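#lab-general

N.A. 3:47 PM
ok so I finally got the sequence cleaned up, no stray characters, all 529 residues accounted for. can someone with queue access submit it? mine expired

B.Y. 3:52 PM
send it over

N.A. 3:53 PM
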Amino acid sequence: MDKGFSFQEREPQLPYHSWGPVFIEFNRHLDFRPSDTSTPEQVELEQKLDAVLAKREYLLSDLRATEEEHVALMDKLRELSAPRTTPANLLPDDVLLLIFSMGIGTALIVKSRKRTHEDKTHHRYFQTAVSQVCRRWRSLATNYPSLWTDYVVQDTPSTDNPELDCWLSRSAGIPLRLWIKCKFSPLGEGYSTPDGPCPRFKKLIHRIVDRLSFLWIEGCTHTCLRTLSDVGDRAPLLGELHVKSGQCDNRHLTPQDHALTIKKVTAPDVTAASFRGPKLLAECLVTKRLRYLNLAGAHVGPVTSSRVDETTFLNILSGCRELLYLQIDQSCFPDGDVPDSLGIVATFPRLTLLELYHGLSARPFSWLARIHMPILKAIKLKPHNTSDWSISTPPTDEYLAAKRVWLSNTPTIEEVSIRFDRNPVEVSNIIDLLLEGLLPHLGFLRLCRKDGYFWNSSSHWSKDLLRKLTLCVRTRWSLGNSIPRLFVEPPLFEGEPFGKNYAAELLSEVDEIGELKEFGLEALFREEQ
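B.Y. 4:20 PM
back already:
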């Protein structure tokens, strides 16, 4: 045996997976070889030692393989856990085009920094902004026609407009959506053009009128009238028309302006229209195929410009036989009493939703009572003028009588939504009418204060109003005309969530309705017990 070899000296210097060769070397130096003088016990021990060494070498090799697998898995986990960003060039074309289409629109015009030779800010469209990222984005943004369908014109376009030429060529002949926006006067309620006459868009309209599917006009009355006159009957694809107008700061309306209404917009596919401003604008549209008509913004501007005479009013509504939704303001209705000789002035055989902005005047309800609406399902009543509803003066008998006649003529109504101001007189009125048995098919009632989401104190509900509401629910339930859905905003009782259905709770016993003791309401119901 070699005296210079020591197993104890080499063992700490080697890792555990290298012990196998050490034991083999140690066994070699021991030189356990069978000899003639070996006893059977020695031979048996030598065989057992060889078996143990072989088994140890096998286990160490398996341990080394397990350690290598462990290291590989840790490296892979570390690689997956590291934050990574996907390069833009890895996104497929259809995903990029979808992202681009979500970025276009009239409200997403990108503003660049000011030019050095101009005072005003240069506006750049979203499509041109993304085209500057890389060649691939530029190719997609410029060669995809659906990204070039919305065109916005600010003020008056120049005679030579290369931007429009680019837009028309890249849209590849598909229908276009056009927004015309004039500068709003910062000092008044109209539109101002201090640098010249009122804007005119005749050349622009003539170039794209045959491809128009959507038209938004925002400007003074003169600009809107002339633009509608330029469209005329030359827009076969027009489906939506929206006009937002106000008084002109340059000049007043003239007889020549009124003469422009003779040339009407007669596009066969116009199904939705809205007019905000003088009713003179609504005369420019043939309403036979309209399904959605919005006249609620007509009260904006001087009242004198919003009033229409009886003939104009009847002409506008008489052709709306395809109407499904009507939003109207009380200023749209003519002044004075409704002549008894008129009878039914219009018929809306398909109208299902009516939204009315009204005050304490009986005029709109008197006219609505003369309009036949056989399948009207829902009405929304909203305050027209805050000053009318904020006063504590109760409505006149004429007002209540006109509303009663109108609701009695439309028994098909199933949903009623009332939006009131600080004085909930409209809520009290509608509850009184429901107690009379009107609207037998009513299944949905929503009472909402105008700023209900900022008014969260239930103490503003009067005791009389709560009593009326509870009495209405119980009375209609006893008559078989229950209201299964009743929503009140803000909630009747403090701490309750918005959107709660009170129909079942108001049918419960008095001491189970909310926290009545905090409001002292037990005495209100003692007469019924």
